[in-house]
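Hi there, hope your week has been kind to you so far. Would you mind checking whether the tokens look sensible for this chain? I owe you a coffee for this, so here goes:
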Amino acid sequence: MITRRGCLLPALAGAGLWLAGMPVARAGAQVEEPLADAVRSALSSAIAYGAPPVPEFADIDARLKYLRWLGAMSHRLQRRTPVWNERKEFLQTVWYESKRSGLEPSLVLGLIQVESAFRKFAVSRVGARGYMQVMPFWTRTIGNGDPSSLFVMQTNLRFGCVILRHYLDRERGDLFLALGRYNGSRGQAQYPNAVFAASKAWEWKDAPDAPKVMPGAAPLRVP
């Protein structure tokens, strides 16, 4: 079970999620920690899993629910990413990698907003890279050793989701502490609260009046 605690900031509505004067948090203080061989092997396998990020669904209702989510999120992201095909590819990958790691897409989108403001080529002052501000040491620890691969959208999102899942498992489902580890500020409230607040704008409840899918959405495979 995933738990949250220490949520001191109020939920913020709309696109303007930052409080006045609140500093931007970064994952650049992530600590490189020794990993047990079994953990390293499991994380490496999770990163290397080669299936393309194409959602598959057990039934048509699940597929339609996903498409409604995609339409709603596309509408919210349009100001930041005006081109539909780019939004679709990004959101499809976020959904796929989030679900694959057992995370909520709204949480991952909130983290991306806090970390990089949805900038693919963002680099922090200490070298964290891409959408989810992944530190280069992770490519050496569980990847192919090439830090430049963190600027590839799917690679960055996969690393970020797998790393957050790893921290969440270490903290026994405590999302507050897991986010602190992701940011290198375990036990401090500022970063987890910023992500919790940002994720509110990306939450979605399926409803009859949910926005329709944008034109041009590619058909998805249904097993």
Q: What stands out?
A: The domain at 53-200 is CATH 1.10.530.10 (Lysozyme). The two ends are 29 Å apart (CA to CA). The CA atoms of residues 41 and 153 lie 23 Å apart.
